[in-house]
Structure formats: structure tokens, C-alpha cells
Amino acid sequence: MRTERVGFAVSGSFCTHEQVLKALEKLAAVYETVIPIASEASAFTDTRFGTSEDLLERLEDLTGQEVLCDIPSVEPIGPKKLLDVLVIAPATGNTIAKLANGIADTTVTMAAKSHLRNGRPVVVAVSSNDGLSAGARNIGELLVRKNYYFVPFGQDNAAAKPCSLVADFGKIPETVDAALQGEQLQPVLLR
Question: What pTM was estimated for this model as a whole?
């Protein structure tokens, strides 16, 4: 098993959680330490896609670690150098906007801010209904920033949702591997 320590932060976009959990399962089979992190919305909101209790239980079962789901629990990530790479999956338009604008007022954005202080990679798996409209500038901002690496993404339903973007969550393990080597997995844009 690989010894790099992976943080895995889950934000909203509840409809993608099943795909995200499959990617987490693959990572947990390769890396001996995967620390689950959940946004406040994911940790405490029940939706038609499942309960928050079920999500937290599954995150803990897959990783063998307690889920970090508040700002005080993730703040030490940077000072204590707890992670080698941080994955944000799904990364909602809201989370991406906050990262692009230096706002660290949620568990996930604070985890990223704390982790980035050490110049270590953050892997972003976008899932946003406005990625090609209001959210485009924020995605563009992170694409050109040092230490941000994107899971390849594309339009998920161009006819019905022409502005919606979603990552290929199955490529998270490959993107993590590339990011740990300081490389962006290519191609970034999927057809």
C-alpha cells in the first residue's frame, strides 16, 4: 500500500455522492491513510439521495477513520502537515467560488486553506450546474493557480443542462497520482 496521506473532502452535490464513494473506495484500497472530511451540508443534511448519517457511516467504513466535519477539526491539517494530498469531491460551484476568492468559512474550504499553506496538491472534482456560466470564472481562476489539479471534467448533459459540468469521478485515483508528482492529468476537458 502507498504511504502518502490522502484527505478526502465531500461537499454538497448530493446526486454525485454514490460515484464519489466508489472513487473513495478505490483510493482506500491503494493508500493506507485516507482521512474523510465532510462539509457541513453533507454532514448534517438529509436529502432524497440519502441521509447524512448514512453518508458519514459509509465514509468511516471505507476509510477506517473518523469523519472531520467542523472547522476546528480540519484547521490542524496544515500546521501538523497531516496530508500529502487533499481531494475535494464533489467540488460544488459554491466551494470552488470560495476557494477562488480565498474564503475559508466551511470545513472543506478551511481544510484546503490549511493544506495549501504547505504547498501541497489539492485535487478538485467539479460538480456544478453553473460551471459554464456564473461559475466559469472561478474554475478558470483555480485552473491557473499553483497546487490545484482538476479531475478531468466535461458537460454532463449538454442538451438539458448546457451550463452544467461534472468530473469523471472514476479518474480521481489517476488524478491523485499525477498531482502527487506535480502533474495535471490530461486531457482536462472531456468530450
Answer: 0.96
